[in-house]
Amino acid sequence: MSWVLKDVLLYGEGDPVDVLLTDGRIAEIGNGLGAEESLEGAGLVLLPGLVDLHTHLREPGREDAETVASGTLAAALGGFTAVHAMANTDPVADTAGVVEQVWRLGQEAGHCDVAPVGAVTVGLGGEEMAELGSMADSAAHVRVFSDDGRCVSDASLMRRALEYVKAFDGVMAQHAQEPRLTVGAQMNEGVNSSKLGLGGWPAVAEEAIIARDCILAGHVGSRVHICHVSTAGSVELIRWAKEKGWDVTAEVTPHHLLLTDDLAATYDAVFKVNPPLRTQVDVDALRQALADGTIDCVATDHAPHALEDKETEWGAALPGMTGLETALSVVAQTMVETGLLTWRQVAERLSETPARIGRLDGHGRPLAVGEPANLCLVDPGARWTVDPAAMASRSRNTPFAGRTLPARVVATFLRGRATVLDGKPA
Amino acid sequence: MTAVPDRPKRPDSSGDPATARPVLTAPELARVVDRMAHELLEKTGGGADVVLLGIPTRGASLARRLAARITAFEGVGIPIGSLDITLYRDDLRLKSPRALEPTALPPGGIDGKLVVLVDDVLFSGRTVRAALDALADLGRPRAVQLAVLVDRGHRELPIRADYVGKNIPTSLRESVHVQLTEHDGQDAVLLGSAEAGREGR
Amino acid sequence: MKRHLLSAADLSRDDALLVLDTAEELAAVAERATVKKLPTLRGRTVVNLFFEDSTRTRTSFELAAKRLSADVINFSAKGSSVSKGETLKDTALTLEAMGSDAVVIRHSWSGAPVNLARWVRGSVINAGDGTHEHPTQALLDAFTMRQRLGRLEGLRVTIVGDVLHSRVARSNVLLLHTLGAEVTLVAPPTLLPVGVEAWPAEVSYDLDAVLPKSDVVMMLRVQRERMGAAYFPSPREYSRRYGLDVRRAAALKDDTIVMHPGPMVRGMEIAPEVADGPRSTIVAQVANGVSVRMAVLYLLLGGSEPAIGASAHTGDHDRTERTDA
Q1: Superfamily the domain C135-282 falls into
Q2: Which CATH code for domain A3-45+371-425?
Q3: Do B139 and C34 touch, CB atoms closer than 8 A?
Q4: A97 Cβ partners below 8 Å, 6+ apart?
Q5: What total of structural domains would you count in chain B?
Q6: 3-state DSSP assignment of residue B160
Q7: What ipTM was estimated for this complex?
Q8: Cβ of C323 and A316 within 8 Å?
Q9: CB contacts, 8 Å: B97 with chain C
């Protein structure tokens, strides 16, 4: 089937053009084009399909919270054409068998591509290195390795893993959290935690690991990617490491670009997340860092949880927030409407760069003739109110419930096939 | 943030006294109190074993005045005290909790005594009912009598006063305000129209 | 409108004084009356929901409720479905079905009473949540201070010990500040929270320097489990630097009182001679606890509308509020 997207703005720039999609590729860009199916796109922004470096799809193991099918549908509705599925499933994605299963489930669901992330250590145990090479060589073609949810805190193990993945151009995605400094941690350590009587998660626990790992990556000449950077201090360290010329990349989540730890005062565990929401000073630094490129990309850390794991005491609740269906809108509010990023730069931060870090072929490509038709069409002027019950994710733990956000994904195309049309599953 | 009950005021001062008409002036009120003091002496055989317990706020003041007049007439000192009945009210669920008023018993206590409860206005009788309950928890008087400055009728319980300063037949739409210098800057009894939603007495 | 007592910060100055004045009257009633039971809360049901053992606090609330003629249901975590994995929300819905007018909750997690308040119709009273707050303890402490010293305004109160983990300290700092007292916290730096500089209190590491200026010294319990976690090197060293021993007690002004929320670790944070001495209000604190809790129950449940407490926590918080504004 062929599609023509009429009168769209490429990257939100220039004059309206028609974009013709045939055989899974962009066949022609011009005016007055026709096809079997036509989509009126006046006023809409065409971006390359978004790529998430950090998604929890929960399958296998917690299919009550999310499945590959439900999570990738949520992703498509959020404008994504590829997501990286984190390894902390049950069983853990620490073998070629598990990562191939996840990859295949993604193919079967067909909403977006699923690139499994491989666990660094067996069972996320932090002690014994998993068979990273086998996962790299598998059908899932794993390039990103992470124990996310846990930090690879053993410095020696981290060093060896950084060295080992060089053989297949892999990248170590570190969840930076010094475990001994975060025993019993429940929220950002500061004025609010002192008043609320919740265990503090100090910024230094993140920053100490980031400093160490940047230096390690520089020392062994490997690639390190810092997951969900959350503090102003982390930004300074990453800026310093990049100035050194080390191969360090970093991501920030939409929620860390918008929310602060003031929300913990509600004791509503929907605001519990790891790393925790920080202060306005941190939020401002993260936005600035994303704008100036110190932070390379936005990743959702979409972390669906079943109701019983969230509708409970703060301390007993699991950390995490859903984010796939709200990511672009939160970026639009925090970065585009504030003038910090153009839509062209949004394409870079949410598609091109994460695809490059994850070594994903066919994603984050230019909007040009001959390129794969992985696309996302956005209405930048739309405003919508977040309703947890109306989301495709199986879980309801969005911290943005009730907020009115700008920009809405109108359509998503995966290799020329519409996965989302009119803001709904195609 | 929170509505706190006005401490010195009781709801019996409701209505707008400004639009009310006087039924007792200050000199009349003084004469009525004098007469009540005489009656009390007469009926209690000279005030032996009598304890006056006023129901705050104005009942407590009236008890003090009655005791002072009795002393002036006969030279005897009558023990006085106050009895807050808030915790015994049967209409608690209808209103915000009230601040408690002081309860103070005379040093000799009330056991075996003739306790005369003193209040400003007798209306439904519910306040007196609550006072009798409160009294029962404090001790065992030989007998209990009731003295009120104004009886306005409309009893809802089988209660009557032993000493009445003045009977004032009222409509339920009216309210009775007893004003005493200690609280209101002047002595008077006023009859006005009850405001909607507020408690007339 | 339903009201709760979740934090000492829920009480305005007028609220707090109303509680203390009411407690004073209730204490007088109890002292006078031959029959200790008041009919005030007849027909009301108070649930004691204790997820943490605390015989003292539970008994105090139970006695307070019973003296006001409320029906009391003790719902302890042990032996109930709570220990079988039932969630706090399930428990809340069960209590709703039973028709409770108030829930007194003690829980090991900070904020659990705030969660509960969202799920039940009745009033929620925080009887201690994790390392967060214990507002009725602060009220009874303030009551005791006023009883012994005649005032709260301008009183210099020193709180000594494990402030980091103390819900008593948090509630006391908030309430005493509201009531015009000046609070100084004294502890080893490891037992003070990061962020304490934003509290309405002074901070000192030097107990000896602060004691002579204090009108009230409140000693906090040092829990055994802190000793193994490197908050301080040894009980002996803690005691030497932060314990209220006989020598230190001698440096106090004549009328300075010594308080302890209990249970005490005698010889560790407080010497037995001091705990049992004339300055000590420890026994009075227990008695006052009942009067203060009666006052809180009366003011929250005694009428159609509560006279004190917060309603702000109960509704869904304003999620549309933008933090980037």
Answers
A1: Aspartate/ornithine carbamoyltransferase (3.40.50.1370)
A2: 2.30.40.10
A3: yes
A4: none
A5: 1
A6: coil
A7: 0.91
A8: no
A9: 298-303, 305-307
